[in-house]
Every structure is written in C-alpha cells, then in structure tokens.
Amino acid sequence: MSRFGSARTGSRAQRWRRTRLRRTGAVVLAVLALWTTWAALRPSAAATVAVTVAARPIAAGTTLGSADLKIVQWPAGVVVPGLLRPAQAAGQVTTGAIAAGEPVTATRLAHSAWKALRPGEQAFTIPLADPQLAALLRAGDRVDLYDPATRRLVVSSARVVMSTTPKVGPHDVTAPGEPTLVIAVEQRNSAQLAGALASATTLGTGLIAAASSRA
Questions:
Q1: Is the pTM of this model over 0.85?
Q2: Averaged over 47-65, what is the pLDDT?
Q3: How far is residue 123's CA from residue 190's CA, in Å, rounded to a whole number?
Q4: Are 198 and 125 in contact (CB under 8 A)?
Q5: What is the number of other CB atoms lying within 10 angstroms of the CB of residue 115?
C-alpha cells in the first residue's frame, strides 16, 4: 500500500473514532439530562416523626410494659397532643382501652393520685357498696360518702382524684378486680373517714357514695 493510501486509511479511522466519541458523549448528556429532569420532578420524601403506639390491643387498668409499646413513623404534619416516649409510658396504668396502633398519650394514662393532692388534703382508696358507680366517676367529680352501718354522712363533697375500672383481657384467666376510687379529703375529715372505712372493712361492706354537684 502506498503512503497516500495509508494516510487515507488512518484518516478514516480517526474520523470514525471521533464520530463514535461524539455519539457516546451525546448519549451520556441525554441520560444526564433525563436524570436531572426526573430528580427535579419526583416528589420529595415526606417528613416524619417518631410516635409511640400500642403494639397490641391494651385493656383499661393495664400496667404498660415494653412489650406493649412500639415506635412508628408518622407524617410530621399529623399533630397528636400529649404524645409520650416509651420510657415515659412504661410502668403507667391505662385508664381506658387502647387499640393496636393507637398513639399512647398522657390522657389515656392514670395520673398519680399524690400529685393531684392539694395542700392539707389526704388521699383514701374507698371500697363502695355499689362498685359500678366508680366506673361512672371521673377525676374532679364530687361525692358524698355515707356509712351504711350508721346511715350517717361521713364526708361531704369529697373530690375524686382517680377512678379506674379494671378489665380482663382475652387471655387473662384471673377474675377482674374491683373498680378503684381514690378520693381527696381535708385533713380534718381524715379521722372520721378512717373510722368509717375500718368499720366497713370489719363488716365486709363498702361505703355508700352519692354523686354531688357541689364544687
């Protein structure tokens, strides 16, 4: 092959390589353009927050443990007042049933009776002659307490601090406990109430409670 023929062959090879490089570059640029457009148009990931929820159905009167709670991610725009961290909820008692997946909030847990006491008050757990009344009472309600043995008024307008109604779960073979009624009374009435409670315990009865509208 002549020198002229070799030059022409080399020139064609160089042109072919340049053409291939230009085509490859065009493809790369097109892919980058498509990726940039897709990245700009795709919806951004929604912000989330960690929420403590019930890991299973929980009955009222349950003392929460770590197995009852789990953390899930909820949209940040969903506001749930009173949310608690697992460490805050563990060990507390529920005042109502909580469904699986439902957020665990402070409003669903029993507050300490001692924190609710005012200066000069004392708290008493009251056995009732009619335990069903405890299920109808809420913190802040007022009740008059009578001694069934003497039929006399023991305490007037006692303030309800806590009222819970224990429930038995589907796998609980134990008998349900009695509703718990905790009341706060002024110290000057404590001795009279303690005497009535001792008498009711001896007789195996509870005190008679009547709801009061007095503040």
A1: no
A2: 87
A3: 9
A4: no
A5: 7
